[in-house]
Amino acid sequence: MTITRAGRAAALGAAVLVTLAACGTQPASSAAPGPASPSAGAAAPSATASPGSAPHPNAPEVVAAGDIPDNQVFVPYVPPGGLFQVSVPEGWSRGADGAATVFTDKFNSIRMETLPRPTAVDVASATAEEVPALASSVPGFRAGQVTDVPRKGGDAVLVTYTADSPPDPVTGKSVTTAVERYEFWRNGQEVVVTLSGAQGADNVDPWRIVSDSFRWQ
Length: 217
Prior knowledge:
Radius of gyration: 38 Å
Number of strands: 10
Number of domains: 2
Helix content: 25-40%
Strand order of the largest sheet: 3-4-5-9-8-7-6
Structural class: alpha+beta
CATH superfamily of the largest domain: Mog1/PsbP, alpha/beta/alpha sandwich
């Protein structure tokens, strides 16, 4: 009987050792580094380089506030009287400011008017006469430069300045605008084409298209 109990105890001890060994090796195998670990680490770079995260070459152009799109279409405009012609962006709203015609879109505007002037405008006369007049009548006026500029339709005097825009009729918001005022003269008539847009907007090319399109009729 003593031998049987010892045998049973030995058998039970052996079973316990086997069970403990099995339990001990299972966690160790799950915690030990295996071949899956490097492949899991390599998955992160492949996700970063996914084609879906790269800019699409045919995605629509992201236009900053005030920027005139690169694909803007321009159409010729001849005011009543037919004295001159100038190209304006298609789709802009047209209105009047006294005798002037104004095309607008957001804070961008093109204003054109004809004035009688017996002598040709030049840098000296624009600096002495028109800059002070603008300073006293334009809200937030800050003078820029007065220069002679060649354009395809003839030379012009260019007056640049910054000013406060009229408040937006919906939001009441006003922004600082950068203004280019082109003055063309012929035979006692002056045509003033004023281009304005939000300061910082990239409208260099569109404004060049408009100012280069001016033609006497």
